[in-house]
Amino acid sequence: MIVFEGVGKHFADRTVIDALDLRVEDGEFFVLVGPSGSGKSTLLRMVNRLVTPDSGRVLVDGDDIAMMDVEQLRRGIGYAIQSVGLFPHRTVAENIATVPRLLGWSKQGIASRVGELLHLLKLDEPGIGDRYPRTLSGGQQQRVGVARALAARPRIVLMDEPFGALDPLTRESLQASLRTIQRETATTILFVTHDMDEAFGLGDRVGLMLDGHLVQVGTPLQLIREPADDRVREFVGGSRAHLRALAIRPVRERLRHGETAEGEAVDIAASLQEALGAMLAQGRDRLPVTEGGHVVGSIALVDLVDGKR
Amino acid sequence: MTDSARIARFLPVVILCAIGIAAAGLPFLHVAPNRLLSGVPQNPDSIALVVAWLLVAVAGCSRFRWLATACTAAMVITLPWLAGHDATQLLEGASSTTRIQTGAGFWTMWLAALLLLLDRVRGLRIAWQAGIWAGVAFVLVLGGMAGAFDNVAVMREYHAQRGAFLDALQTHLVLSLITLALALALGLPLGVWAWRAKRAGGMLLGVFSFFQTVPSLALFALLIGPFAWLARQWPALASLGFGGTGAAPAVFALVLYALLPVLRYTVTGLDAAPVDAREAARGLGMSRWQLLTRVQVPLGLPVLLAGLRIVAVQTVGLAAVASLIGAGGLGRFVFLGIGQGATDMVLLGTLAIIALALAMDLLFQGLHALAESRS
């Protein structure tokens, strides 16, 4: 659990963060989203004390972090950044083992954890652990960066636009990996991005930051349906926000049980956006829906439009 | 291979061989009645040398890289051997004070041959390069020990002053090594501090840059006063050999000169670790010391060693001047030689200083290559 209590930060005469309160629950995937310079990275970096607030305090699991030993605190919190920052003179395995080594884990303990993480993050190429970072692709490097952040099984992980520099395909694959890992380990993740789609796709809750203020905190659907003001509506995407809503919601929600239809089926776990795409591609307004390979019903174009059903 | 690449590859061969051939017109040896008078030029085998250079040129332009390297190495070894051989013949029947000095022709040709060898081995792996140079040096030393060059004036001079020369060589080496050790012991921590405190560090670098502009001779002279005063104040220091002249002020001045490059390369080396890697290291909970020893030092070591290479060569050169304030070393041979007008003595000191500097250079180059391959 991370709690910000009235934190503020000023650089010279500019207010970067203004008396901000926020509570991130245990096991929650919380995304801070906002334009560049809105203060979201600064807020994130307060949690591991790379930035010290000028006012207010930050609590981790109820303890004021200002009172804690800074290295101890940081070793207990995972940290991944957009530029990755792998150590070029260390192999992939050594990079991943950074924090366990600092914590004095045993050799076997470290080796087995590294193997586990390589598998978890789909770094399955044989011998990849002994390679140096410069021989990896950008996507692989960021996978190693995420593995390094997760290595010592931290209860909290901070991620500062970790996928910002990746191509869309690699980014989607990494987002999926991260979401799975987060669900399975119940890790608390505080994630910063400027990409609304990424925020809505990943976050249990999303906090929209503008000019050092949290203007709205809520689930992705709350932000889309009940924007707090015009700035939120604009940032969420105006009428395009409803397309985003389709991307968040699964086919399951609009399933017509027992009905069937012609055409290529969509999976029940797919998003409504994917279903719409399939309809457009096939030129049909109704498609069969499958679960585990069996047809369980159908979905119709009109169901996507009519939100009340 | 394109035409321009071919030209770029063979141009050094053509130029250096042309210089070698042209040098056949300069005096290869001088025959002097004694070690102080200048001699009469002698060119016993200019035709053979021209032919040899033509062969080297042909081999150098051929497709067989190893043949070219071997021919050039042979030239580097043959030239001194030939000088020694000719000297022996010229000395037959001459008076015992007669000296056979190597002339402009010899030195030009030898330099051209060395440069050509340098050019030929350049693309090879560092281990091969070191091996070839060590092999050439080994053959020359072996020849020297067998007496092949004994009748050349420089070697005569060496044999006449062997004890003094070896003493001076040792002193020179010790002065240089102590200077390097002290410059590192002071420069590394200061460099780390200068890197952390950017503004104060800039001022520190400014101060040492200023010292760098003081001519070495003037600095050595300026130190005589303060050091003599210190020795008078604390007789205990004086009894340890501390005084206005001698090793103490010499090492002090040499360290002063060495500190600027050590500082500068330490700062550059600490910056060699990428900013994002440093940020990640801090965010993951490394202490400053761990960041330094686990990230910055391994990544900055090649830079630092490249700098130390320069410092080492510079120190060996400057230590020659230190002999003027009684610190001893090979500089003594140079300055005494100049005073007496004995060119052979000057040459002996100079050659030894060059050899020492080259040895330092090779040592640090090797260490640098080692560090580079590991990081």
The dominant shape of chain A is globular
Q: What's the SSE pattern of chain A?
A: EEEHEEHEHHHHEHEHEEHHHEEHEEH
Largest interface (CB within 8 Å) is between: A-B, 24 and 19 residues
Helix content of chain B: over 70%
Question: At CATH's second level, what is the architecture of the largest domain in chain B?
Answer: Orthogonal Bundle
Q: Cα-atom Rg of chain B, whole angstroms?
A: 25 Å
How many independent structural domains of chain B? 2
The biggest beta sheet of chain A is recorded as: 6 strands, mixed
What does the radius of gyration of chain A come to? 22 Å
Per CATH, the class of the largest domain in chain B reads Mainly Alpha
Question: What is the tally of helical segments of chain B?
Answer: 15
CATH topology of the largest domain in chain B: MetI-like fold
| CATH homologous superfamily heading of the largest domain in chain B | MetI-like
Number of helices of chain A: 13
Q: Could you characterize the architecture of this molecule?
A:
The complex is a heterodimer of chains A (309) and B (375). With 309 residues, chain A is of the alpha/beta class. Chain A is 37% helix and 26% strand. Chain A contains 13 helices and 14 strands. Chain A has helices spanning 40-47, 70-75, 92-96, 98-102, 107-120, 138-150, 168-185, 196-202, 220-225, 230-236, 240-248, 272-282, 301-305, and strands at 2-11, 14-24, 29-33, 55-60, 63-64, 77-81, 156-160, 188-193, 205-210, 213-218, 256-257, 266-267, 286-291, 294-300. In chain A, strands 6-7-8-3-9-10 form a six-stranded mixed beta sheet, with helices on both faces. The two termini of chain A are 37 Å apart. The mean pLDDT of chain A is 90. Chain B has 375 residues and is mainly alpha-helical. Chain B folds into two domains: 3-154, no CATH class; 162-374, MetI-like (MetI-like fold), CATH 1.10.3720.10. Helices cover 78% and strands 3% of the residues of chain B. Chain B contains 15 helices and three strands. Chain B has helices at residues 3-22, 46-61, 65-91, 104-121, 126-146, 153-160, 162-196, 198-213, 216-233, 235-239, 247-270, 275-283, 288-322, 331-340, 343-374; strands spanning 29-32, 40-42, 99-102. Chain B has a three-stranded antiparallel beta sheet with strand order 2-1-3. In chain B, helix 1 runs antiparallel to helix 2 (46-61) and helix 7 (162-196) runs antiparallel to helix 13 (288-322). Chain B starts with a helix and ends with a helix. The mean pLDDT of chain B is 88. The interface between A and B is medium-sized, with 24 and 19 residues.
